[in-house]
Structure formats: C-alpha cells, structure tokens
Amino acid sequence: QKEVEQNSGPLSVPEGAIASLNCTYSDRGSQSFFWYRQYSGKSPELIMSIYSNGDKEDGRFTAQLNKASQYVSLLIRDSQPSDSATYLCAVKGGTPLVFGKGTRLSVIA
Amino acid sequence: DAGVIQSPRHEVTEMGQEVTLRCKPISGHDYLFWYRQTMMRGLELLIYFNNNVPIDDSGMPEDRFSAKMPNASFSTLKIQPSEPRDSAVYFCASSAQTGLLNIQYFGAGTRLSVL
After folding, report:
1. What pLDDT digit, counting tens, does each position of A58-91 carry?
2. Closest residue on chain B to A43 (Cα)
3. What sign has the CA pseudo-torsion A75, A80, A86, A88?
4. How many helices (H) and strands (E) does chain B have?
C-alpha cells in the first residue's frame, strides 16, 4: 500500500514568516512529487512539482526533495493571509497520483 | 481551454435514489480520474481511465458505484442506490501523459448530499 503522510495541522504562522510543510512517502520507486493548494470549498490546484533531489524555487515557494529520506517539503516565504489553505502532497510512482490528506495552513495577519 | 468541467455542482438527493455525476476532461488529455473527498478520508481515488478504458477501479467502494467513459470527452460516475454515507465532494481530474511531469487538473467538483 503506497502511502503519503502529512501532518494535518493546523499550522499557524504569522504574516511575513516562513511556513514549512512536510510530507513523507512510502514508495521508494516514486519519481515525481507535487504540491497542490486547496482553498476551502474549491478544487485542488497545482502550485509546485519536483522530480530531482534538491530545491526548486518558484517565486515565494520552494519545494525540497530528498529521495534517500523519502521526504518532500514546501516552504512558503513571506507568508500572506491569502496563503491560508490546505496543502496536499502528491506522489507519482505509477500512473495515478497518491495524495496525502493535507496540511491546513493558517496565516495570521 | 475551459478546463475540466463537472456537472452538477451541487446535488441533493434522498437515500435510494440514483445519482449521476458528469465530467468533461480537458481536450487532448488521455487520462481521466474520479476522486471522492471527505474530511475523514481525504482525497480518495475511485477509478481512472486511459484512452477511455478503465484501468483501475479498485477504489470504487461498492457495486453501487459504476463509471463509464463512452468517448474521449465525457465520463459519468453513477451511484445506485445512493446512501447517506456517499455524501462527499466528487472530483474529476484529467491529465496528459508527459513522462515524469504527469500533472492532473481538477474540475470544480460536485458536492453530493444524500439525505
């Protein structure tokens, strides 16, 4: 059974701080990793993808991947209240993505 | 592109009734996925299709659930008979196989309430 684990939160950070979201996965053969953001009552939307070890930066977002430790993280710099949402980690080994249950982030103004 | 289109957006029905959810994937995408999301269980994959053919339906909870994809631009998820525990948000997603970067795009979802 392929599993993706996330802390459900809520993770509360003050506005302007760095939010750090973490995810571990069980399938060592996983090749691609994704972070989706889901606002309350909305559908998941992709914000980051990564498939090589190391860091990948896109604006205020940085995805970090460590395949040896089976660990992927998302850093959000200069957090804004508009970043308050649930963040879903998704892992691809075979064709279907395996999603974690998500971490709820709350950015306090 | 209009994105993945789902209908209806909201469905309220009574226990025992048949429910049909509809999905139009993004044109050119050859994978289609049906998910169910609840607070308790998160986002669960129910079934997925490749080139209109069902590949894995192991996530379908019971025989009351069925899904079809008669052509590349349309899919349905049917629940018959519906039960209160089927109340959830049902998402359809589609993707194009592009190697490692197999990005799934989600529809707006159908919020189902079974009374």
Report:
1. 999 999 999 999 999 999 999 999 999 999 999 9
2. B108
3. negative
4. 0, 11
